[in-house]
Amino acid sequence: MAKLSTEAAKRKAIRDKIAAMTPERKRKKAQNQRIRRAAKKRGIDIAGKDYDHKRKRFVSIKTNRGNGGKGTKKEK
């Protein structure tokens, strides 16, 4: 993947910040914080893992983002 120009990177950072601060994204971030904190409290090793809402457990980032090899475009 090509690296963004300085101008494009700045514009993307602004867009990303706006998207991250929407009420919906804030709720999702807060939920993930609660889940991660609870898992750490129970002694679960969550380093390098994401919470998979389908499987209801922590899986590797690669597995979660790749949707088990199926990709995420057709996911509903």
Q: What's the oligomerization state?
A: single chain
Rg over C-alpha atoms, rounded to the nearest angstrom: 16 Å
Uncertain segments are none
Could you tell me the number of beta strands?
2
The span between the termini is: 27 Å
What proportion of the residues is helical, as a percent range?
A: 40-55%
Order of helical and strand elements: HHEEH
Count, helices: 3
Mean pLDDT: 90
Main beta-sheet strand count, sense and barrel state = 2 strands, antiparallel
**Approximate shape:** extended
Q: What is the beta-strand fraction?
A: 5-15%
Strand order of the largest sheet: 1-2
Give the structural class: mainly alpha
Fold and architecture overview:
The chain is mostly helical. It has a domain at 24-69. The chain contains 3 helices and 2 strands; from the N terminus they run ααββα. It has helices spanning 6-20, 23-41, 61-66, and strands spanning 49-52, 57-60. The chain has a two-stranded antiparallel sheet. A hairpin with a 4-residue loop joins strand 1 and strand 2. The two termini are 27 Å apart.
